[in-house]
Amino acid sequence: MAGEETELLVGMKNDGELPITIIAIRASVHLPFDHKLLVQNLSAQGFNNATVPTSAQATFPYIFAVSKFLQPGSFDLVGTIVYEIDQHPYQSTFHNGTIEVVDSGVFLSMESVFLITLGIALLVLFGLWVNGQIQNLSKKTKRASKVEVGTGTRDASMDEWLEGTSLGKSQSQKSKKKK
């Protein structure tokens, strides 16, 4: 978690003929897509020349904390142990992999709120769609009864008021053509 201490245990096995003197352990955090970009250089922890005798193994704790201002996400952690064999300094990378940094102290992040809201909205839309499909399937198709528009007989006295208009003239021409 960002801003909180994390303990990393580093194991060292001596298969050589000389004792190993442990000088320090250090680590750094890098961006996963470009390892050249250093995000945070973590503190080095000294061990006051602790030794690992021949044919033995030892475990050393390394306590570190990434910055509390570090954005949550994936980062590369590179851990290195610095040691001496017969007064010659060496270093060995014991970890070079991805770590997940999570935000501490926040119950709900904006991303979580967005995803929850999106999920609820999609469920509501799906429910409305299913409801509409059920209503379409359960609807009984009603046959519309014929509606009478006007009378079936044409009486000349009903069209008196149209005489002299263009409609009246076209109807009189139609009646002449029918005869």
From TrEMBL:
It comes from the Eukaryota. Pfam families: TRAP_alpha. Residues 158-179 are annotated as: Disordered. Its main location: endoplasmic reticulum. GO terms for cellular component: endoplasmic reticulum membrane. The chain crosses the membrane at residues 113-132. PANTHER family: TRANSLOCON-ASSOCIATED PROTEIN SUBUNIT ALPHA, TRANSLOCON-ASSOCIATED PROTEIN, ALPHA SUBUNIT. Belongs to the TRAP-alpha family. Shows a remarkable charge distribution with the N-terminus being highly negatively charged, and the cytoplasmic C-terminus positively charged. TRAP proteins are part of a complex whose function is to bind calcium to the ER membrane and thereby regulate the retention of ER resident proteins. May be involved in the recycling of the translocation apparatus after completion of the translocation process or may function as a membrane-bound chaperone facilitating folding of translocated proteins. This is Translocon-associated protein subunit alpha. It comes from Salix purpurea. The lineage of its organism: Eukaryota, Viridiplantae, Streptophyta, Embryophyta, Tracheophyta.
